[in-house]
Amino acid sequence: MDSSEQRRKRKRIFRPSSSISALVYFFSVRSFVLCFSFLIFVFLLSYHIPFSSSVFRPVLVVSRLSLLSSSSDLLSTSLSFQDFGSSSSSLLHLQIEGRVLFPDHVLLLVNKNDLFSKNTEFECVYGRNSTGDDVGIVKEKSYSVDVYGDFEFGAFVRCPLPRVNYSAVVNLRELRGNGSNQTVNSWESVAYAAALDGNTVVVFVKGLNLRPDRESDSSQFSCYFGLGNFEKEGRFALRTKAITAAQEVVRCALPLSIRKNPEKARGIRITIGMLPHVHAKAHEHVLLPSVAKISELKSEGRRDVENGKYDLCVCTMVWNQGSALREWITYHSWLGVERWFIYDNNSDDNIKDVIEELEIENYNVTRHVWPWIKTQEAGFSHCALRAKKECNWVSFMDVDEYFYFPYSTPGHQSLRSSGYAGQDSLRSLVANVSSSSPGIAEIRTTCHSFGPSGLNSAPSQGITVGYTCRLKSPERHKSIIRPDALDTTLLNVVHHFHLRKGFSYMNLPQSTAVINHYKYQVWEIFRAKFFRRVATYVVDWQNNQNEGSRDRAPGLGTEAIEPPNWPLQFCEVWDTGLRDFVLSNFADLSTGLLPWEKSSF
């Protein structure tokens, strides 16, 4: 009895300890399994999704529409988050040189590559925001792709802004692989283009905040040149002081090591350093971000420079003006314009096709991609540099502006012959000025602003025939300039340039020539002006600033809402002079059709 009682006591004593041991053993095995599983999970997660890259990063992927089906299938199946984060650049041989964040899109500057062709399409790929709910990546079709060598890149690719749950600014880095630049630059402060001009380089910059229409103190600025292995190290090796600075343009001397052989300058990354305050020392320069590489603006016209320059060229900047281009170029070519520089500011209409057709028809037109928004003055300075090698005179005008020669009296024979203007009249005018007045380097022509002229839809025969009612008093002027006589600052306020000392301008009498400015067209066309103004120092019309500016249409607010009686506004004088001239000189004798009407049919 005693022995059985003792056995029961021993069981009661040892049972708890046995339970504890079993429990400890259970949790030990479970912890080991959980820890091992967690490590495997972390390994797989880090292998497929790099934590440091879970932010918005627009990365280019060649669309399967652009490659052979077998290649595209391979790409589409192999593109995981890891692929575009670490190896898509090497897979597609794409190297993104820089990114610029604009208010309505992201611009990617992509290095030269054999994959690029006129018909190549791309997708923009965005990584998820670490704080968002979406998982994986998002692909969007690019807005546009422009293969272009002027800026020493292979192409400009415009991508949409990221979606709501995707970071847009702060963490735009982490595109690894193949030496791609990992930075996204704000459009508010960046050096965006640079061009050689003799022994100097001209740099175009946003963020200097210099005053319009006047030269600034160049001692506050310097140019920094990135030599050697810049793309990997990100260092600027050489510095030269600025020679001039005005608005968005800074000119610097080339370093001595480059000046002896300017060819070496091509493709070099360059930026601007500026003193943070007046009393700062030279070594305290603050360097602006840069996507600019030095380019050489080579002649692309039909005539070799050795055979002489063109007497008269035209430069303009456009956005979605493909429908207006043919009439404008056909008309002014008849007046003697020999060469056309079209700076395309992010058009998404048919302007490429129109220019290609005009080129086939021997109109000597070249399209130059200029993706930088609100930089018309800088773009005109850039065009003046380009035209200097090819042109004696360059007219800076818009595609809704037309030179018109009223009937000339004998008193104006010094500028052109009496009577109605004949073919090549405008070219003859500038040639006469060159020979008779070599000190004149700018010809200013008065503008008359035309209204909708009672129309509710775009005139089928073109704007020169359709719009015939204008304001009585002229507004402003436009200029034809000699690019070799411009001030070294290249300073301009769109309508005229500053000239070097020793040169002056002349005003053409209105009885000799005027410009018909078809400024206030039918509403469906006019309202496009609300999208964005191209000039740097002109406020966009959606903003309630400078509402009394002459740039705005009188009486309009900040929204693109058609005012009452719009077709009848801005009509004080009926003026059919240019309409009659066009119908007399351009209409087909058998059909009555105008050249731009034939093309549209």
From TrEMBL:
Q: Where are the transmembrane segments?
A: 20-47
Q: Where in the cell is it found?
A: Membrane
Q: What Pfam family does this protein match (any one)?
A: Glyco_transf_92
Primary residence: membrane
Domain of life from the UniProt record: Eukaryota
Give the UniProt keywords, A-Z.
Glycosyltransferase, Membrane, Transferase, Transmembrane, Transmembrane helix
EC numbers = 2.4.1.-
Q: What is the recorded membrane topology of this protein?
A: Single-pass membrane protein
Instruction: Give the family this protein belongs to, as stated in its UniProt record.
Output: Belongs to the glycosyltransferase 92 family.
Give the protein name, as stated in the record: Glycosyltransferase family 92 protein
Q: Species name for this entry?
A: Solanum pennellii
